[in-house]
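Worked example

This section walks through a single chain of length 253. The input is the sequence exactly as stored; nothing has been trimmed or padded.
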Amino acid sequence: MNITFENQAALVTGAASGLGLAAARAFAEAGAAVALVDFDGDAVQAAAETLAADGHQAIAIRCDVADEAQVAAAVEQTVAAFGRLDAAFNNAGIQAPVSETADAEGDDFDRVIAVNLRGVWNSMKHELRHMRGQGSGAIVNCSSTGGVVGTAGLGAYNASKHAVIGVTRSAALEYAPSGIRINAICPGVIDTPMVQAAKVDHPEHMAAIIDAIPAKRSGTAEEIASAVLWLCSSGAAFTIGQALVVDGGFTVL
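Given that input, the structure is written out below as C-alpha coordinates.
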Protein backbone atom coordinates (compact mmCIF):
# COMPACT_ATOMS: atom_id res chain seq x y z
CA MET A 1 0.00 0.00 0.00
CA ASN A 2 1.29 3.41 -0.99
CA ILE A 3 0.85 5.77 1.95
CA THR A 4 0.46 9.39 0.93
CA PHE A 5 -0.18 12.60 2.83
CA GLU A 6 -0.29 14.94 -0.16
CA ASN A 7 -2.08 18.21 0.61
CA GLN A 8 -2.11 17.39 4.31
CA ALA A 9 -0.33 18.83 7.33
CA ALA A 10 1.34 16.96 10.18
CA LEU A 11 2.74 18.01 13.55
CA VAL A 12 5.44 16.05 15.37
CA THR A 13 6.67 16.79 18.89
CA GLY A 14 10.14 15.81 20.01
CA ALA A 15 11.08 16.24 16.37
CA ALA A 16 14.69 17.40 16.69
CA SER A 17 16.09 13.87 16.88
CA GLY A 18 15.29 10.20 17.29
CA LEU A 19 11.78 8.90 16.69
CA GLY A 20 10.34 12.36 16.16
CA LEU A 21 12.82 13.36 13.48
CA ALA A 22 12.39 10.03 11.68
CA ALA A 23 8.60 10.46 11.73
CA ALA A 24 8.80 14.07 10.56
CA ARG A 25 10.99 13.04 7.64
CA ALA A 26 8.65 10.15 6.79
CA PHE A 27 5.62 12.45 6.79
CA ALA A 28 7.48 14.93 4.59
CA GLU A 29 8.60 12.25 2.14
CA ALA A 30 4.97 11.08 1.95
CA GLY A 31 3.97 14.58 0.84
CA ALA A 32 2.86 16.27 4.06
CA ALA A 33 3.73 19.76 5.19
CA VAL A 34 5.31 19.21 8.60
CA ALA A 35 5.65 21.26 11.78
CA LEU A 36 8.64 20.04 13.78
CA VAL A 37 8.18 20.87 17.46
CA ASP A 38 10.87 20.48 20.10
CA PHE A 39 12.22 21.96 23.34
CA ASP A 40 15.64 22.38 21.70
CA GLY A 41 15.03 25.35 19.42
CA ASP A 42 18.38 25.29 17.65
CA ALA A 43 18.26 21.57 16.93
CA VAL A 44 14.70 21.59 15.65
CA GLN A 45 15.43 24.61 13.45
CA ALA A 46 18.36 22.73 11.91
CA ALA A 47 16.18 19.66 11.36
CA ALA A 48 13.47 21.69 9.61
CA GLU A 49 16.04 23.45 7.45
CA THR A 50 17.43 20.08 6.37
CA LEU A 51 13.97 18.91 5.31
CA ALA A 52 13.35 22.19 3.49
CA ALA A 53 16.68 21.87 1.69
CA ASP A 54 15.51 18.48 0.47
CA GLY A 55 12.46 20.11 -1.09
CA HIS A 56 9.93 19.51 1.66
CA GLN A 57 7.59 22.00 3.34
CA ALA A 58 8.64 22.20 6.98
CA ILE A 59 8.65 24.68 9.84
CA ALA A 60 10.35 24.57 13.24
CA ILE A 61 8.65 25.53 16.50
CA ARG A 62 10.37 25.67 19.87
CA CYS A 63 8.01 24.41 22.56
CA ASP A 64 8.07 22.84 26.01
CA VAL A 65 5.13 20.43 25.77
CA ALA A 66 4.71 20.53 29.55
CA ASP A 67 3.56 24.15 29.17
CA GLU A 68 0.01 24.18 27.81
CA ALA A 69 0.21 27.77 26.60
CA GLN A 70 3.28 26.96 24.51
CA VAL A 71 1.54 23.91 23.05
CA ALA A 72 -1.54 25.91 22.15
CA ALA A 73 0.66 28.47 20.39
CA ALA A 74 2.55 25.73 18.52
CA VAL A 75 -0.66 24.21 17.19
CA GLU A 76 -1.97 27.65 16.21
CA GLN A 77 1.29 28.38 14.39
CA THR A 78 1.02 25.09 12.52
CA VAL A 79 -2.53 25.78 11.38
CA ALA A 80 -1.63 29.36 10.46
CA ALA A 81 1.25 28.12 8.32
CA PHE A 82 -0.49 25.21 6.60
CA GLY A 83 -4.19 25.98 6.87
CA ARG A 84 -5.07 22.68 8.51
CA LEU A 85 -3.89 19.84 10.74
CA ASP A 86 -4.44 16.27 9.59
CA ALA A 87 -1.98 14.15 11.57
CA ALA A 88 -0.02 14.44 14.79
CA PHE A 89 2.62 12.31 16.47
CA ASN A 90 2.90 13.31 20.11
CA ASN A 91 6.32 11.88 20.73
CA ALA A 92 8.17 14.26 23.05
CA GLY A 93 9.40 12.44 26.13
CA ILE A 94 12.16 12.19 28.69
CA GLN A 95 13.68 9.51 30.88
CA ALA A 96 14.29 9.60 34.63
CA PRO A 97 17.38 8.23 36.37
CA VAL A 98 17.17 4.49 37.00
CA SER A 99 16.29 4.18 40.66
CA GLU A 100 14.36 1.99 43.04
CA THR A 101 11.17 3.67 44.22
CA ALA A 102 12.37 4.29 47.78
CA ASP A 103 15.44 6.13 46.46
CA ALA A 104 13.82 8.08 43.62
CA GLU A 105 13.59 11.87 43.67
CA GLY A 106 10.15 13.46 43.64
CA ASP A 107 11.33 16.23 41.32
CA ASP A 108 12.40 13.62 38.75
CA PHE A 109 8.99 11.96 38.99
CA ASP A 110 7.17 15.27 38.55
CA ARG A 111 9.18 16.29 35.50
CA VAL A 112 8.70 12.93 33.76
CA ILE A 113 4.95 13.09 34.33
CA ALA A 114 4.87 16.73 33.19
CA VAL A 115 6.55 15.98 29.87
CA ASN A 116 5.52 12.41 29.07
CA LEU A 117 1.91 12.55 30.24
CA ARG A 118 0.80 16.16 30.59
CA GLY A 119 2.72 16.95 27.42
CA VAL A 120 0.72 14.36 25.49
CA TRP A 121 -2.53 15.56 27.06
CA ASN A 122 -1.71 19.20 26.25
CA SER A 123 -0.88 18.29 22.67
CA MET A 124 -4.00 16.20 22.12
CA LYS A 125 -6.25 18.86 23.62
CA HIS A 126 -5.18 21.58 21.23
CA GLU A 127 -4.78 19.33 18.18
CA LEU A 128 -8.31 18.04 18.75
CA ARG A 129 -9.75 21.54 18.88
CA HIS A 130 -8.67 22.03 15.28
CA MET A 131 -9.41 18.52 14.05
CA ARG A 132 -12.90 18.68 15.55
CA GLY A 133 -13.65 21.67 13.37
CA GLN A 134 -12.37 19.84 10.29
CA GLY A 135 -14.26 16.66 11.11
CA SER A 136 -11.15 14.60 10.43
CA GLY A 137 -7.69 13.83 11.69
CA ALA A 138 -5.45 11.17 13.18
CA ILE A 139 -3.31 11.32 16.31
CA VAL A 140 -0.66 8.89 17.51
CA ASN A 141 0.64 9.22 21.07
CA CYS A 142 3.99 7.74 21.99
CA SER A 143 3.79 5.27 24.85
CA SER A 144 6.36 2.49 25.24
CA THR A 145 6.73 -1.15 26.10
CA GLY A 146 7.08 0.46 29.52
CA GLY A 147 3.40 1.28 29.11
CA VAL A 148 2.35 -2.36 28.92
CA VAL A 149 4.85 -4.13 31.19
CA GLY A 150 6.78 -3.15 34.29
CA THR A 151 10.50 -2.50 34.48
CA ALA A 152 12.38 -2.35 37.77
CA GLY A 153 13.99 1.03 38.38
CA LEU A 154 11.81 2.93 35.93
CA GLY A 155 8.73 3.58 38.00
CA ALA A 156 8.17 7.21 36.98
CA TYR A 157 8.74 6.51 33.30
CA ASN A 158 6.49 3.45 33.32
CA ALA A 159 3.77 5.34 35.19
CA SER A 160 3.79 8.05 32.54
CA LYS A 161 3.70 5.60 29.65
CA HIS A 162 0.92 3.45 31.15
CA ALA A 163 -1.09 6.64 31.59
CA VAL A 164 -0.53 7.69 27.97
CA ILE A 165 -2.40 4.58 26.89
CA GLY A 166 -5.23 5.47 29.26
CA VAL A 167 -5.72 9.01 27.97
CA THR A 168 -5.37 7.73 24.39
CA ARG A 169 -8.20 5.24 24.82
CA SER A 170 -10.48 7.75 26.54
CA ALA A 171 -9.96 10.39 23.86
CA ALA A 172 -10.31 7.78 21.10
CA LEU A 173 -13.81 6.93 22.35
CA GLU A 174 -14.72 10.60 22.62
CA TYR A 175 -13.71 11.55 19.07
CA ALA A 176 -14.25 8.43 16.94
CA PRO A 177 -17.83 9.55 16.15
CA SER A 178 -16.37 12.84 14.88
CA GLY A 179 -14.12 11.17 12.31
CA ILE A 180 -10.93 11.55 14.36
CA ARG A 181 -8.82 8.51 15.14
CA ILE A 182 -6.46 8.34 18.12
CA ASN A 183 -4.03 5.52 18.83
CA ALA A 184 -0.82 4.93 20.74
CA ILE A 185 2.41 3.32 19.69
CA CYS A 186 4.58 1.39 22.12
CA PRO A 187 8.19 1.23 20.91
CA GLY A 188 10.60 -1.21 22.48
CA VAL A 189 14.33 -0.57 22.62
CA ILE A 190 14.97 1.69 19.62
CA ASP A 191 18.38 3.00 18.58
CA THR A 192 17.80 6.67 19.44
CA PRO A 193 19.90 9.24 21.35
CA MET A 194 17.91 8.45 24.52
CA VAL A 195 18.73 4.74 24.29
CA GLN A 196 22.33 5.44 23.33
CA ALA A 197 22.70 7.59 26.45
CA ALA A 198 21.15 4.84 28.55
CA LYS A 199 23.66 2.36 27.17
CA VAL A 200 26.47 4.64 28.34
CA ASP A 201 24.95 5.35 31.75
CA HIS A 202 23.68 1.83 32.47
CA PRO A 203 25.56 -0.59 30.19
CA GLU A 204 24.77 -3.82 32.05
CA HIS A 205 21.09 -2.92 32.46
CA MET A 206 20.69 -2.11 28.76
CA ALA A 207 22.71 -5.13 27.61
CA ALA A 208 20.39 -7.41 29.57
CA ILE A 209 17.30 -5.79 28.06
CA ILE A 210 18.59 -6.10 24.49
CA ASP A 211 19.65 -9.70 25.07
CA ALA A 212 16.07 -10.47 26.08
CA ILE A 213 14.63 -9.22 22.76
CA PRO A 214 13.69 -12.21 20.57
CA ALA A 215 14.83 -10.30 17.46
CA LYS A 216 18.25 -9.93 19.14
CA ARG A 217 18.65 -6.30 18.17
CA SER A 218 17.41 -2.82 18.83
CA GLY A 219 14.79 -1.38 16.53
CA THR A 220 15.37 1.62 14.27
CA ALA A 221 13.66 4.98 14.36
CA GLU A 222 12.56 4.43 10.77
CA GLU A 223 10.71 1.25 11.76
CA ILE A 224 8.71 3.23 14.31
CA ALA A 225 8.09 6.03 11.82
CA SER A 226 6.62 3.50 9.36
CA ALA A 227 4.18 2.30 12.00
CA VAL A 228 3.21 5.87 12.92
CA LEU A 229 2.48 6.76 9.30
CA TRP A 230 0.34 3.66 8.87
CA LEU A 231 -1.68 4.50 11.98
CA CYS A 232 -2.28 8.00 10.59
CA SER A 233 -3.14 6.75 7.10
CA SER A 234 -6.41 5.72 5.49
CA GLY A 235 -5.16 2.14 5.65
CA ALA A 236 -5.76 2.23 9.40
CA ALA A 237 -9.23 3.77 9.09
CA PHE A 238 -10.82 1.14 11.36
CA THR A 239 -8.00 1.19 13.94
CA ILE A 240 -9.11 3.23 16.94
CA GLY A 241 -7.90 3.38 20.54
CA GLN A 242 -5.20 0.77 20.12
CA ALA A 243 -1.73 0.55 21.66
CA LEU A 244 0.46 -0.89 18.90
CA VAL A 245 3.55 -2.57 20.30
CA VAL A 246 6.65 -2.50 18.06
CA ASP A 247 9.37 -4.20 20.10
CA GLY A 248 10.97 -7.12 18.28
CA GLY A 249 8.85 -9.56 20.28
CA PHE A 250 10.02 -8.44 23.74
CA THR A 251 6.58 -8.28 25.37
CA VAL A 252 5.46 -11.58 23.81
CA LEU A 253 7.64 -13.50 26.27
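What to look for: The longest helix spans residues 106-134.
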